[in-house]
Amino acid sequence: xxxxxxxxxxFTAPVGSxxxxxxxxxxxxxxxxxxxxxxxxxxxxxxxxxxxGIDVGVGVLAYLVVKHETGNSLLAxxxxxxxxxxxxxxxSELFTENFLVPVTxxxxxxxxxxxxxxxxxxxxxxxxxxxxxxxxxxxxxxxDVRPTAVEAGAHYAHLGVSWRSxxxxxxxxxxxxxxxxxxxxxxxxGVKLVPAVLMSFVLVAGQLFHSVLDSILMFAGLLSGGAxxxxxxxxxxxxxxxxGNLVGGLVLVTSVRLLRVPHRVKEERQENLG
Length: 274
What we know:
CATH superfamily: Glycerol uptake facilitator protein
Shape: elongated
CATH class: Mainly Alpha
Low-confidence stretches: 1-19
Radius of gyration: 21 Å
CATH topology: Glycerol uptake facilitator protein
Number of helices: 12
Strand content: under 5%
Structural class: mainly alpha
Helix content: over 70%
Mean pLDDT: 90
Largest sheet: none
Distance between the termini: 47 Å
């Protein structure tokens, strides 16, 4: 059959074909960076985790000051975004940022479950250590914000174990893992700043249940004195929020994203595992 003159040939690739090179390129970047993170020596891993807690603590500082001065939660949430901008530009690391990148590397055969557990455990512990240091300095240096810190921490300490708190944690894990995926869509720092600001605003404005951020707020409240919750309440909130964060990050974002490039996953596993 003769093609009409002047028309352009068109072809619609079938679902699952390689018509989306950008997605494959993003997958390759995730695998390479995940491999780097999983094999990172202990001292740099400790440093990036601790600094991640410091950076988020800077965001908490901004949040508490603005909330104290204005009483406006949305303005305070906007101020908090400086913490995630710092995370990005200072190249430090947050526990929940490790749900997409290193997991993709493990699925692709470029790392082990043991390496992943090491990365998660060290990063979370050092995030909390850095956040504790920042919370302590905030409580001592800024006595005027202590009541605001106590109130902010109490919200998360009293969420308890319920479907509501679980889904708040799932949403937090989803938001941060989506942030990570969005940032890996480009190498341009200006582009990466956009999701850092937008998604961290959603996280705080929605009062989502995030293991590290909310722990720092609870630390600030506990160290300020007068809190109607205790360290056991914080620890229970940490365990529950971490579980929900994992579900949101791994189930709703990472696993579904990997389904978009099954052929690349198969190729990587065959090459790396034999």
